[in-house]
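Supplementary Note 3. Input sequence used for the single-chain structure prediction.
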Amino acid sequence: MPRKPDTTRGPGGGAEGSVRRADGKKAAPSTRPRRPSVADTLRVDLRQLEERLAHLEELLHSVRAEAGRSTGAARARLERIDQLLATRIRTTQETLRASLDRMSRTLADSRNTVERELDRLTRGLRAGVKAGREALRRPPPG
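The predicted structure, written as discrete structure tokens, is reproduced below.
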């Protein structure tokens, strides 16, 4: 016995935007994984750098506290560790700044590209409207 179409979910019987095959059956969803956008990738990189920086700053704080309580060779060793951690923090901060700069440039480039394409489309639309208007004003041949 054939099934009745489901009219409660739109004209195609499925969710909005569902893809149907030629025989009317619902097509299988794409199994190809979606590629992350550049902004998503940069966001993840940025978050990881921020987490790394926070962890290094916590380590530096605890090493400095321990060095303040220590004496002799232990203090000298902890001060060397302090210097190494401070260097790593500076490097991480520079990397973070570079990532932010790269993200800003990428977003600016994307915006410029979108604006350029929008300008082209607008000019094309205006030219088409103008040509259509002129064609309507001309008397028919014959």
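DSSP finds two helices and no strands in the chain. Residues 72-137 form the longest helix (66 residues).
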